[in-house]
Amino acid sequence: MSNWRHEPKTEKELRRLMAPVQSIVKWVKTRRGFIIGVGILKGGTGKSTSVLYLALYFALVLNLKVVVVDTDDNSQSIARWVATHEALGDKIPFTLIVHPTKGADAIPLKKRLKPLKSEYDVIIVDLGGGDKETFIDLCAEGRLLFMPSAPSGWETDRIQATLQTASRAAILNTEGLDVYNFFVKCDFNSTLPEEEREAMAEDLSDIDEDFVPPPFLHPYFDISKAPHHVRSWNTVPKRADLEEWGLLVRHAMKGIIEEEDEAA
Fold first, then answer.
1. Can you give the pLDDT at residue 129?
2. What integer pLDDT is reported at residue 205 of this predicted model?
3. Residues contacting 27, CB < 8 A, separation 6+
4. Residue 55 CB partners (closer than 8 Å, separation 6+)
5. Tens digit of each residue's pLDDT (9 = 90 or more) over 139-151
6. Is residue 34 classed as helix, strand or coil in its secondary structure?
7. How far apart are CA 167 and CA 170, in angstroms?
8. Would the pLDDT of 120 be above 70?
9. What is d(CA 94, CA 91) in angstroms, rounded to the nearest whole number?
10. Taking all residues of the chain, what is their mean pLDDT, rounded to a whole number?
11. pLDDT in tens, 59-98
12. Cβ partners under 8 Å of residue 87, min gap 6
């Protein structure tokens, strides 16, 4: 499913782009409470589907204890997905916590995350499309931020503003925050992902003092528009459906693990 246009020439070259599975499990188990945020300051960018597949990969393939925190007051897609499949009797391999950002039950995200760090290996936060304070809390507390979007200006137009907010909030992060863009819903028979990536990476610094270059993952690890993504609302994805998400995770975590190993 991965982008054949940018496929590494050899297996050795591919391995150089990814952390070994055993290294990821060891790293997460050693530190626990690995916080991943998913989303940008805009709705409808494929973030909840990304959250689902990431949670399933960490839980089913890496056998880690995973909790998903759904902060999206507008749709709560993950919460509704879990309720739907629990009603069908499907086994959900991760824990769900609904985190309201408005109303009497609302608390800051950083307060919600604190007790979870000692209980779970991986904490995945489904960020609402427009709640800026929750997004800032994630950038201050998290270790990794994924910003998925389809390769279209309709979905990527808020990425620059999101990156600016993330860079300012990450100053408060004592562990460091790694931020990555990647494309979902890709048709690899077209050049649209390449075209949109080039458009987003255009240097706007002459007219925008706060311009932050989009930090893209290697294009080989973009996510396809495979039919199982569309069907995942009604059917729990199978282990085989998680393969390209596993490649993406291993690619994104390579730099984090190596960075911390060098600092140790």
1. 66
2. 55
3. 253, 256, 257, 260
4. 66, 68, 93, 94, 122, 124
5. 999 999 999 998 8
6. strand
7. 5
8. yes
9. 9
10. 90
11. 999 999 999 999 977 778 899 999 999 999 999 999 999 9
12. none
3-state secondary structure of 64: coil
Asked if residue 113 lies in contact with residue 141, where contact means CB atoms within 8 angstroms, the answer is yes
- Residue 90 DSSP code: P
| DSSP state for residue 108 in the 8-state scheme | -
Find, among 112, 116, 126, the residue nearest to 39 by Cα.
126
CA 184/CA 50 separation, integer angstroms: 8
Torsion of CA 165, 166, 169, 170, to 10 degrees: -160
Q: What is the DSSP string of 201-252?
A: HS--TTT-TT-----BPPGGGPPB--HHHHHTTTSPPPGGGGHHHHHHHHHH
What is the Cα–Cα distance from 145 to 64, expressed in whole angstroms?
Answer: 19
- The domains found in the chain, sorted by start residue, are 4-13+21-263 (3.40.50.300)
Q: How far apart are CA 200 and CA 98, in angstroms?
A: 33
Q: How many angstroms separate the CA atoms of 92 and 86, rounded? A: 7
Could you read off the pLDDT of 222-258 as tens digits, one per residue?
A: 999 999 999 999 999 999 999 999 999 999 999 999 9
